[in-house]
C-alpha cells in the first residue's frame, strides 16, 4: 500500500465523487480536502452532467479559493471536454485515478461511507435527509479527527467553530504535531493492510508479458483473460498494458500477474528423457568408479602379500646361504628339506582360526575325545 503524504497547506489538494442515487433519485456531490479533511456536500437532482458539477465547484471555490489539484474517478462528467476546459482555464491539475480501483481515491470513499451510514439511520427514523446531512456536517467539521487529532474547521480556518456545547478551552494546533500524528496513523494503517493482504513487492517491468483480470460473465469464466498482454508503463501501483490488437488499458498492478508460457508435451517429454539419461550416466559413472576402487584395492592387497612373501623367501635363502658358507653343508637330503620348508609363490587362502578346546575343571576325571 502506498499512502499519500499530507499537503503543505489547506485547500491545495481536493477530491470529488458522487454518492447515490438516493430513493428520491437524487445524487450527492461530495468534495473532501486532504489537509484538514473538510467535507463539502451538494445535493443534485437527477442530472449529474459536467455543467452541474462545474456549478457546484464554483460555489465552493468562491468560499475557499482555487485548489492546486483535484482527484476524481473516470466518470463521464469528469472526462468530458467541458470539465477539461474548466480546470485548464483555472490552472487546476486534474488527476484521474486508476480505472476499476476506487481505493486509489480512498479519502473520499471513506467520507462517503460515513455519510451513507448517517443517511441510512435518518431514513430508518423517517427524517428529512437534507436536514440530517446538514446536522451531520456541523458535528463532523467541529469534532477532532481521529487521524490528525484536530477538527477540520480548525485546520482549515485556524479557529474552532462555536457549537451548543460550552467550550472554555482555547485550542491551538501545531502543524508539526499534526503531521507527525498523520504520518504515524497512516503508517499504522499501511502495516495492517499489508499484513492482512500478504502484500509483496511487484517486480514486473516494461516489456513483460502479463495476464489482466477480466469481468467474469459466468461461474465458468476465468479470473484472468487467457490472452497475454504486454506491459508498457508502470508508475507506482498504476500500469498501462496493451493487447495484440494495439488497444491500451490502465489498471492497478493487483489486476495483473506475470504470464508464464506453458511448455508443449514434446518439450516436456524430451526434457524427461534427457534427465533420465543423465541419471543413468551418473549411475554408470558411480558403478565404474566403485569397480575401479574394488579392483585397485584387490590388486594392491595381492601385490602387497606377494611382496611380503618374496621378502620372507629372500631372507630365508640368505640364511641358508650363510649356513652353507659357514658349515659347508652339502648334504642333498638336507637341501631338499630346506626347499620343502620354503613356501610357494602362489597366493594361498587364509586358514580359518581354530579355537582351543579345554576341559572344564569339574570334568578332570573324564577324557575328552578328539
Give a brief description.
This protein is α+β, with helices and mostly antiparallel strands and 370 residues long. The protein is built from eight helices and ten strands. It comes from Mytilus edulis (Blue mussel).
Describe what you observe in this structure:
The chain has 370 residues and is α+β, with helices and mostly antiparallel strands. 43% of the residues lie in helices and 14% in strands. The protein is built from eight helices and ten strands. It has helices at 50-64, 81-89, 106-124, 129-142, 152-157, 175-197, 265-327, 332-341, and strands at residues 13-19, 27-33, 39-44, 69-72, 93-96, 209-212, 229-235, 238-242, 248-252, 256-258. The strands form two sheets. A five-stranded mixed sheet has the order 3-2-1-4-5, sandwiched between helices. The chain has a five-stranded antiparallel sheet with strand order 9-8-7-6-10, with no helix packed on it. Helix 3 (106-124) crosses helix 4 (129-142). The protein is elongated. The relative contact order is 0.07.
Amino acid at each position: 500500500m502506498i499512502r499519500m503524504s499530507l499537503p503543505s497547506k489547506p485547500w491545495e489538494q481536493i477530491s470529488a465523487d458522487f454518492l447515490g442515487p438516493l430513493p428520491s433519485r437524487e445524487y450527492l456531490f461530495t468534495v473532501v480536502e486532504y489537509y484538514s479533511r473538510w467535507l463539502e456536500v451538494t445535493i443534485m437532482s437527477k442530472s449529474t452532467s459536467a455543467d452541474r458539477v462545474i456549478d457546484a465547484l464554483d460555489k465552493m471555490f468562491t468560499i475557499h479559493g482555487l485548489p492546486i489539484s483535484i482527484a476524481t474517478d473516470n466518470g463521464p462528467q469528469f472526462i468530458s471536454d467541458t470539465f477539461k476546459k474548466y480546470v485548464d482555464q483555472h490552472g487546476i491539475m486534474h488527476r484521474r485515478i486508476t480505472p476499476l480501483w476506487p481505493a486509489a481515491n480512498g479519502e473520499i470513499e471513506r467520507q462517503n461511507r460515513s455519510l451513507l451510514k448517517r443517511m441510512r439511520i435518518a431514513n430508518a427514523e423517517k427524517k428529512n435527509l437534507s436536514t440530517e446531512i446538514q446536522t451531520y456536517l456541523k458535528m463532523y467539521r467541529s469534532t477532532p479527527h481521529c487521524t490528525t487529532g484536530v477538527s477540520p474547521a480548525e485546520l482549515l480556518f485556524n479557529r474552532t467553530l462555536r457549537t451548543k456545547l460550552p467550550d472554555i478551552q482555547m485550542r491551538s494546533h501545531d502543524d508539526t504535531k499534526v503531521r507527525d500524528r498523520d504520518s504515524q496513523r497512516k503508517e499504522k494503517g499501511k502495516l495492517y493492510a499489508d499484513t492482512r493482504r500478504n502484500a509483496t513487492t511487484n517486480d514486473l517491468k516494461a516489456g513483460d508479458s502479463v495476464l489482466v483480470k477480466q469481468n467474469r460473465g459466468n461461474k465458468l469464466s476465468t479470473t484472468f483473460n487467457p490472452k497475454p498482454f504486454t506491459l508498457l508503463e508502470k508508475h507506482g501501483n498504476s500500469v498501462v498494458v496493451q493487447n495484440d490488437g494495439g488497444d491500451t488499458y490502465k489498471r492497478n498492478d493487483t489486476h495483473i500477474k506475470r504470464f508464464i508460457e506453458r511448455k508443449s508435451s514434446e518439450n516436456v517429454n524430451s526434457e524427461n528423457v534427457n534427465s533420465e539419461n543423465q541419471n543413468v550416466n551418473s549411475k554408470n559413472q558411480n558403478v565404474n568408479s566403485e569397480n575401479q576402487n574394488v579392483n585397485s584395492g584387490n590388486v594392491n592387497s595381492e601385490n602387497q602379500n606377494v611382496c611380503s612373501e618374496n621378502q620372507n623367501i629372500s631372507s630365508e635363502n640368505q640364511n641358508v646361504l650363510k649356513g652353507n658358507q659357514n658349515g659347508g653343508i652339502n648334504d642333498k637330503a638336507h637341501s631338499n628339506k630346506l626347499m620343502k620348508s620354503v613356501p610357494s609363490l602362489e597366493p594361498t587362502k587364509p586358514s580359518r582360526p581354530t579355537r582351543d578346546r579345554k576341559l572344564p575343571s569339574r570334568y578332570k576325571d573324564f577324557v575328552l575325545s578328539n
